[in-house]
Specification:
This protein is mainly beta and 440 residues long. It contains 4 helices and 28 strands. Strand 25 and strand 26 form a beta hairpin. Helix 1 packs antiparallel against helix 2.
Length: 440
């Protein structure tokens, strides 16, 4: 029977003494004092519902409990030993395996990334979890035989705080980068951790794996995730948005919507097509805050968008109109709002009226598609029937290609404002986003 180290095996007195030295700036993350203190705080690995055998083999061992199994290594990552890898030996029933970093007191009932100060990469769906149980798209899913790596680029520290340094945590798959996420290193350090949650799961842990710092430099050191309020089937890596959906049908749309609407101060944004993917089904536009996540911008009411693959403009309907040139790899597409001179800032607020789209001849541009009503169309109907839907302030939405004006349309601004929105729909599509290109 494997020996298990539980929460009460932590020397709490040494742990708090170590934290106090950190606060007094007497030690710095990664130095000898930290490593010594960490070993005092956590003398041996902690694990629950995981069996441990030779050569670093970890197996989920308590499927009847319904709880996660977690293994936490005995020592934190340091500048000298900043990386580890996990090889998937068996995915078990559902491949509910997570690899990441946690503080030494992390709960043995929760997967890495679900608790404060922890981060975890779920290998079954490629989602990243950072101090919450929601997660977001991040990288590719993994299977038996794949190696998932995790490390800290201590040389890339993003602040000068010796007690709570912010560092890039990076992940790899089979030796190739997946992406990075910035996180705070708690005073006690971050420890390699593996979580499992289905019968038959088995991994091999390698705490002596190496990773070259030169490769880390190629990665973005800031995920820029705070710039985006909604991400669906899209991964953020610095300024890059990468489509991670299936790309098999129109319901597989990847959508990224910014955290803040365009305003009179920040009235324009751009994307550059880095990789057109299989079909360059890329769209740039504006959408209401509660726009359906599985619909390309422009397809549903409350949105307008310029589509790269055919150069068409979609204004609240799945039927586009010829608008501008097609776009492909390297092209820069822009979208902005020309506000009227007498525009009042309060219409950017949440009490602003709803949207009504007008074409050049003044008629309503929203067309109903043939066939039964879909879920997104039902959402549109509920939205469209709200009070004051036709009383918004008119603005000009314009689009550019490689710095030149393509065209514009007059619309009414929706309640809460117009949010920069990017859509993608075919495999391997990547765009680089600049939400404030005119600010220098």
């Amino acid at each position: 029977m494997a020996i298990r180290a539980r929460d009460n095996d932590i020397d709490l007195l040494a742990f708090h003494r170590f934290a106090m030295l950190q606060r007094q700036n007497l030690i710095h993350p990664g130095d000898a004092a930290l490593r010594h203190g960490a070993r005092i705080a956590l003398r041996e690995p902690r694990f629950e519902r995981v069996s441990v055998s030779g050569a670093g083999l970890l197996c989920y061992s308590d499927a009847d409990s319904g709880l996660a199994g977690v293994y936490i290594a005995p020592h934190p990552l340091t500048p000298e030993k900043n990386y580890f890898e996990v090889e998937i030996v068996d995915t078990g029933l559902v491949c509910a395996i997570s690899v990441g970093l946690v503080p030494p007191h992390h709960s043995l009932d929760s997967l890495p990334g679900w608790q404060p100060d922890s981060i975890g990469y779920n290998v079954d769906d490629g989602r990243i979890f950072k101090s919450d149980s929601q997660g977001r798209p991040f990288g590719p899913p993994c299977a038996a035989g794949d190696r998932i790596g995790c490390g800290i680029n201590f040389k890339g520290s993003l602040n000068d705080d010796p007690v709570h340094p912010v560092v890039p945590v990076f992940f790899t798959k089979n030796g190739k980068e997946v992406g990075t996420v910035s996180t705070v290193v708690p005073p006690e350090g971050l420890y390699p951790a593996v979580g499992m949650h289905s019968e038959g799961e088995e991994v091999r842990l390698n705490l002596d794996a190496k990773w070259e710092h030169t490769d880390v430099i190629l990665m973005s050191i800031d995920s820029c995730e705070e710039d985006w309020a909604r991400l669906h089937e899209v991964r953020v890596n610095g300024q890059l948005l990468e489509y991670v959906g299936r790309g098999k049908s129109i319901i597989d749309v990847g959508l990224a919507q910014a955290s803040h609407p365009l305003t009179t101060r920040y009235h324009y944004f751009e994307i550059q097509v880095v990789d057109p993917g299989q079909s360059c089904f890329i769209a740039i536009g504006l959408a209401r805050r509660d726009y359906p996540k599985h619909r390309h911008p422009g397809w549903n009411k409350g949105s307008i968008a310029y589509h790269a693959d055919d150069g068409k403009l979609f204004v609240g309907t799945g039927i586009g109109e010829h608008f501008g040139p097609e776009c492909n790899k390297g092209d820069v597409m822009g979208c902005g709002i020309l506000f009227p001179r007498d525009y009042r800032r309060e219409f950017d607020a949440s009490d602003a009226p709803e949207i009504d789209y007008l074409s050049d001849n003044g008629r309503n541009d929203f067309l109903e598609l043939d066939g039964g009503m879909t879920e997104s169309e039902s959402e549109d109907e509920a939205w469209w029937e709200r009070p004051n839907a036709e009383n918004g302030i008119k603005v000009q939405v314009f689009f550019t290609r490689n710095g030149k004006m393509v065209g514009k349309r007059e619309v009414r601004i929706p309640k809460g404002g117009f949010f920069p929105t990017v859509g993608m729909l075919s495999s391997d599509e990547k765009v680089r986003v600049d939400l404030r290109p005119l600010t220098g």
